[in-house]
Amino acid sequence: MKKILLVDDEQDIVETLKFVLEGEGYTCYCAYNGEDGLKLAKEIIPDLMILDVMMPKINGFKISRLLKFDAKYKDIPIIMLTARIQDSDRQIGEETGADVYITKPFDLDEVLSTVAKLINNKSEKEEQKEQEE
Amino acid sequence: MAKILFVSNNNEKIKHYDEFLVKYSHDFSFASDTQMFFDALNVEYPNILILDLSSNNIDFSQTYRKINSIKENLTTIAIINNNKIPPELQNIVDALLTEPLSDEVLLSTININVRRKESIVRLTNSNQNLSKSLYQLDVLYNVGSQFSTTLDKEKLINIMLEGLDKALGFSVACVLTFKSENEPLLIINSINQISDRLLEALKLRTVLNYKSLFENKKMPFALNIEDLKTIKYAKNPIDDYDFSVLRYDNMFAQINLSDNFFGFVEIYRENTFTNEDAQCFHTIAQQVSMPLKNSAYVQEIQRKNKELYRLEHLKSEFVSIVSHELRTPITPLKSALQIISSGRAGEVTDNMSRFLTMANRHIESFEKIINDLLDMSKIEAGKMDYKFVATNVEKLIEFIKLQQNSVASAKEIELTSHFDDKFVYVFADSFRLQQVLNNLISNAIKFTKPGGKIEVGTKIIDAKDITCPKCFEQEIKSLHGKYLQVCVKDNGIGIEEENLSKVFDQFKQLESSLSREVGGTGLGLPIVKKILNAHNGVIWCESEINVGSSFYFVLPVATDESNFWILHKQLIQQAKVNKTNFVTFSLTSDEDTIEKLLKENNLIKDTYLNNSVKVKKDDKMTLTMVIPDSDECAAEFLKRKINSTVLNDKAGYGKCDIMFSYTTYPKEND
């Protein structure tokens, strides 16, 4: 079972995503602020993270940067969610290493297909690595 | 009465004339030889000099020089017998009398000359007065013309004081004004320093003067000596003025703005003032009131402007905050609806699905309204960020056609595209340009009846070949060069001619039953217009009722130059928003290597170089760039640095001309 970590201070969004993703057969872990999210990410090493940008304590950009610059966690795909559509934010998101950037309000189908694609990519890469070894 | 010096060696004559002339109350003295003559002149100059040329012991030609040197204030009468007048004296003698001489002739000659002298003195005096008046008039004129050069209160008062100083020359001038309602200010200009106890005395005097002005009447402003602030300016900081100043002659004038009290001015001078001085003083004091009044108006306008600006800002802020807040709940709302409609939360009946669709539709339009509001508030605050890259418009149009096709075909509307010129690039923010095209096409779908046709087309056009309805001509006029023209043409309801230009105004959805039916904020087209303007583009439309509308917009075809001007605009916009300064910098060189010079010597950041424009004309290369967040000092420094680098290697870089202009933003809203 693939593990997905959801981090957003809006509980309703976490709950909705959790409901849909669990319906698709993923195991979901939830955190409601940046600090807990980062701790949980290091603890469970999820197969994918969905991160909100605007959060109390540590914001999404920072979490993403911390994880992507750490060899242990850099392979975790990150989907960044934000309410702002400013291009500058999009760029910062990309620079911090988020794999995909989705603006709120999002389309659930878009989230689902993105999740599936990123997890597939990751599995393929891991298989390749194993074969090489 | 005149002072008469009689030069003669004839004692009889001396005695005779002494008696005779003293009788007519003239002051008589004599000299009987050359030495006495010079001695007499050393004691006092006479008014009238009578030379008895028959005195053979006196060499009159020797006296010539002396007489000539004082002849301005002297009347010289020569008495001759039968001898000749020495040639040296011919030119300096005013009257020549021959002997035998009657006393009456001598007396009348003396009297005529005395009267003539008196009238000359009078004339000289009035001449002096005239030239003084003329000077004062000149000063008045100058002051008057200077008053019109500024609206700054302090500067106006300074001009007034300068004028008073020039025209009248005061020792001390005190001006009382009210900086604001309760801030009385005493400005003291003086030649010497004002001693502390004189300052206290002047303050007290000012308060008393002020109170006496409004005796038994209500004073416009309260004035206590403790609250009275003072500013002192002294030309000569070494010497001090003390109480003696208070004994000087002084004049006082009230400064009124229309009927309102503004303040007063008082000047002190050691010499007494004449009536003309008083007139001049009052005229200058009156003259200052008009520009001061204007300055008060300007201040009021500026204050109101600031307030308006603040309110406008507050409004934008409010819209921005509210929109953000409204936007937040859309996400869970949309997701929840989607979960239910997808059946994940349980079976959906036909009725449920009908209402879910309805809810979805409204959430989507709600979202669009909020996005529009957010965009508009961002544009108004100047915070819209654009990322200009070379963009192919055909691709964008094809992409949007795919997106909108389902909506169009649901309404049985045919959506087609054609491109006269292919592979044309413009510098644009593709996300925003997509928004523009989406807006125009979805508008066209909205206002076209089922079965209609919408056509999107592009072509390259020269600015001078663009045609548009009259109300848009002004904007088109400013364009030059090659443009990509995009047209979205429908055969919908059309727009009345008088409303054509209004469609781009904020919150102006045209009044019609259909527009109410299709809904919208009326912000769509204004946003489109603003986005295109930021791209140095222009939008306009043509329409005919019940035949259809065509919306056109043009964007400059991508060249280094068009790119620069778009970036230029954005950088200036950013400087305005961030309230920073910017410098525009131009380098002209007869060598193409100028860019290499800047790069190789690390003179200018690469980002600025990348945002620069190079224009080659008559074998001269001009490189222009905008450097945000910079100042005049930095520009001057950069100029010197470049100049010295060029001087070191003339052969490599040729001759350079460097120009820069420096602008600070914002000027008015500090």
Please specify the SSE layout and strand pairing.
The complex is a heterodimer of chains A (133) and B (670).
Chain A lengths: L2 E5 L3 H13 L3 E5 L2 H11 L3 E5 L7 H9 L9 E5 L4 H9 L4 E4 L4 H25 L1
Parallel strand pairs in A: 1-2, 1-3, 3-4, 4-5
Chain B lengths: L2 E5 L3 H13 L3 E5 L2 H10 L4 E5 L7 H11 L4 E6 L6 H4 L4 E4 L4 H45 L5 H16 L3 E7 L5 E11 L1 H18 L15 E13 L7 E9 L2 E10 L5 H13 L1 H39 L2 H12 L8 H31 L8 E4 H18 L3 E6 L5 E4 L1 H17 L6 E10 L10 H5 L4 E9 L22 H6 L5 H11 L3 E7 L3 E9 L3 H18 L3 E9 L4 H7 L5 H5 L2 E5 L2 E9 L3 H17 L1 H4 L2 E9 L6
Helix pairs in contact in B: 5-6, 5-8, 6-8, 9-11, 10-11, 11-16, 12-13, 13-16
Q: Report the mean per-residue pLDDT of chain A as an integer.
A: 86
CATH superfamily of chain A: Response regulator
Number of domains of chain A: 1
**Looking at the structure, what is the overall shape of chain A?**
globular
Describe the protein:
- The complex is a heterodimer of chains A (133) and B (670).
- Helix content of chain A is 50%, strand content 18%.
- By secondary structure, chain A is an alpha/beta fold.
- Chain A has one domain: Rossmann fold.
- Chain A has a five-stranded parallel β-sheet, with helices on both faces.
- Chain A is globular.
- Chain B has five domains: 118 residues, Response regulator (Rossmann fold), CATH 3.40.50; 138 residues, Beta-Lactamase; 68 residues; 168 residues, Histidine kinase-like ATPase, C-terminal domain (Heat Shock Protein 90, 2-Layer Sandwich), CATH 3.30.565; 104 residues, ACT domain (Alpha-Beta Plaits), CATH 3.30.70.260.
- Helix content of chain B is 48%, strand content 23%.
- In chain B, helix 10 runs antiparallel to helix 11.
- At the A-B interface, helix 1 and helix 4 of A face helix 10 and helix 11 of B.
Which short descriptors sum up this protein?
heterodimer; A: 133 residues; alpha/beta; Rossmann fold; five-stranded parallel β-sheet; globular; B: 670 residues; Beta-Lactamase; 5 domains; five-stranded mixed β-sheet; 21 helices; 48% helix
